Amino acid sequence: MINDKESVKAQYTGAENLNTRISIHSKYSVNKQGFGNWIMSNYEIKDGDRILELGCGTGIMWKDHQDMADRASELILTDLSEGMLLETRRTLGERGHISYRTVDIQDIPFEDKSFDVVIANMMLYHVPDLDRALSEVSRVLKRDGTFYCATSGEKGIVEYVAGLISDYRARGNIGGKREYKSSLSFTLQNGEEILLKHFSSAQRLDYPDGLKVTQIQDLIDYLYSLTDMTAIGEMDREELGSILEQNKVDGILYVPKEYGMFVCEGIK
User: Fold this and answer.
1) Dihedral of CA 38/43/44/48: which sign?
2) What is the dihedral of CA 224, 227, 233, 236, to 10 degrees?
3) Which tens digits make up the pLDDT trace of 158-204?
4) Is 212 helix (H, G, I), strand (E, B) or coil?
5) Phi/psi of residue 157, each to 5°?
6) What pTM was computed for the model?
7) Domains of the chain
8) Considering only CA atoms, which of 21, 19, 80 is closest in space to residue 55?
9) What are phi and psi for residue 261, nearest 5 degrees?
10) Which of 53, 41, 129 is nearest to 84 (CA)?
11) In whole angstroms, how far apart are CA 206 and each of 58, 184, 189?
């Protein structure tokens, strides 16, 4: 996983890569609630809360839950990418209590203890200096505030596909079988330990799901959208497609997913 600042900005210059990743979940997910809806269902937002979201993506989750956004006295949506913020602004439009800013989580330009809720979903594993970033989050969060951060686990889509590739190559004696280990710096498995350095509590919540993929090309597009984040994208598309097709059962490739979130309270 490459997580330097410029590589991350390149990945999210616009919404194309992100939309590719979102589309495979909406098309093939077993759990029909939807990860975004599930995340929002776990937010506890009170009337008048001041909310900061870091790495806001396209803003689609707020568009689908405008009633929740309207509870806030102020909702500040931020991203490292100006292109992504432009997409967010298109999604949500101009509303009096919503603002858009380019912000690096490692250097948050707001006053101490100024937010009731801080959100950083599916982005902490990109951050070069995670300890500094979380120090900044805890600094701007009120003492009775809540920090929400969704992430993936170490046995998800990429790891599963990497395992299929390893098995295939081992059968052909091409480099032998290798166990693929996640290179993510922040996961469901290690997140609690990392977060408890900055917060008194870090509750892990898991979202049960998987993919039932019928059109392998969609999965390949997803994997190639992760260029610079996984070596799988360096494979020949035709070879990768052949491997995935061979693992279908009754026309379906079942791919496990491992997603969830942490709910953190209490500033240390």
Assistant:
1) negative
2) 80
3) 889 988 988 887 776 444 445 555 668 999 999 999 999 999 999 99
4) strand
5) -60, -50
6) 0.87
7) 5-154+183-209+258-267 (3.40.50.150)
8) 80
9) -155, 165
10) 53
11) 23, 17, 11
Burial grade of 206 (CB within 10 A; 0-12, 13-18, 19 or more):
exposed
pLDDT in tens, 131-143: 999 999 999 999 9
Q: Give the separation between CA 35 and CA 209, rounded to whole angstroms.
A: 9
Residue 56, both tokens:
């806001």
Q: How far apart are the first and last CA of the chain?
A: 29
- Axis crossing angle, helix 216-224 with helix 157-171, rounded to the nearest 10: 110
Three-state SS for 129-196 is: CHHHHHHHHHHHEEEEEEEEEEEECCCCHHHHHHHHHHHHHHHCCCCCCCCCCCCCCCCCCCHHHHHC
Which alpha helices (DSSP H) does the chain contain, by range? 5-11, 16-28, 35-41, 60-63, 66-69, 82-92, 130-140, 157-171, 191-195, 216-224, 237-246
Q: How far apart are the C-alpha atoms of 125 and 186, rounded to whole Å?
A: 5
Query: 208: helix, coil or strand?
Result: coil
